[in-house]
Amino acid sequence: MTESLLIIEKTEQVGKIQLNRPQVLNALNTALVRELADVMEQMDQDDDIRCILLTGNDKAFAAGADIGEMAEATSVDFIVKPFFADWDRIRKISKPIIAAVDGFALGGGCELAMCCDIIVASETARFGQPEINLGVIPGAGGTQRLTRAVGKVRAMEMILTGKPIPAQVALELGLINRVVPSESLEEEAFQLAKEIAGKPPLAVRLAKQAVLKAMDLPLEHGLHFEQHSFYLLFSSDDQREGMRAFQEKRKPDFKGK
Ligand code: DAK
């Protein structure tokens, strides 16, 4: 029997997905990325899941796209076959995604973490874009998202040298949210996912969208999007519930409606 490429678990409104190709440091082949996009889309539609948690194992979150699969590809293959189409599906997920990163997050692995909304890393995690050493450049957003996250000169150094940075440096550069000991990574990331899962789902969804818009819209347009999203939430039950609960000094019970 072949082992599954992903290990999936649902706990307290958190959908956990573990990448499971440990023998190749979770190298992201087409089949795995397809399955990941499928599962994330299912979780995006599942009312019982309010936050997604993506993890690897202690040696690697993911060491990049599968080099074995790519090595003999031609430019025409990339254009004609939908080699990388599933990556676009992942960035369109509307629920928040937390990456819990231990070990290597390199190339496509670093790009996958950056597609997530929050990154919690262990002290031994390493982030890098080593594609330059293979004669190519990042292709799943590395030159764009890394630059937006850490600024031009830092991104340039990482991408031109291909040298990974340790978690503590990634934290200082603003690439990740927090660094925790390896043994508590899963629990800390889960607690954060659970905390977000307890928030009103519609507001969470629109907040995610609005923050992502800030990355690529001019301020005027971003502010416009924010304002309209704010107005829209006043037609939700959760807005009434949240404000009433505050006035009645009780805990709100959000339904995502
Ligand atoms: N692909 C395939 N196999 C890999 C792999 C990868 N990326 N990374 C590691 N492996 C395999 C190794 O070949 C080895 O297999 P065996 O030899 O045992 O069969 C096994 O995993 C263990 O690796 P090592 O023996 O090398 O382990 P070490 O601890 O010595 O070294 C390492 C760990 C992470 C430093 C090293 O494995 C390494 O440098 N790996 C390659 C990292 C890399 O260059 N990653 C970038 C790949 S290019 C796009 C989407 C995505 C992408 C591009 C476009 N579009 C949407 C357009 C992404 C591109 C990339 O990620």
UniProtKB/TrEMBL annotation:
Q: Which GO terms describe its biological process?
A: fatty acid beta-oxidation
Keywords recorded for this protein, A-Z: Fatty acid metabolism, Isomerase, Lipid metabolism, Lyase
> Would you identify the family this protein belongs to, as annotated?
Belongs to the enoyl-CoA hydratase/isomerase family.
The keyword Lyase belongs to this UniProt entry's keyword annotation: yes
Read off the lineage from the record: Bacteria, Bacillati, Bacillota, Bacilli, Bacillales
Q: Cite the EC number.
A: 4.2.1.17
Q: Per its UniProt record, what Gene3D superfamilies does this chain match?
A: 2-enoyl-CoA Hydratase, Chain A, domain 1, Lyase 2-enoyl-coa Hydratase, Chain A, domain 2
Q: Which segments of the protein form a coiled coil according to its record?
A: none
Identify the stretch annotated as signal peptide in this record: none
Instruction: Give the main EC class.
Output: lyase
Q: Briefly, what is this protein's role?
A: Could possibly oxidize fatty acids using specific components.
Q: What is this protein's record name?
A: Probable enoyl-CoA hydratase echA8
Reactions that this protein is recorded to catalyse: a 4-saturated-(3S)-3-hydroxyacyl-CoA = a (3E)-enoyl-CoA + H2O; a (3S)-3-hydroxyacyl-CoA = a (2E)-enoyl-CoA + H2O
Entry GO MF terms: enoyl-CoA hydratase activity; isomerase activity
Asked if the Swiss-Prot or TrEMBL record annotates the protein with the keyword Lyase, the reply is yes
What domain of life?
A: Bacteria
Native source organism of the sequence: Paenactinomyces guangxiensis
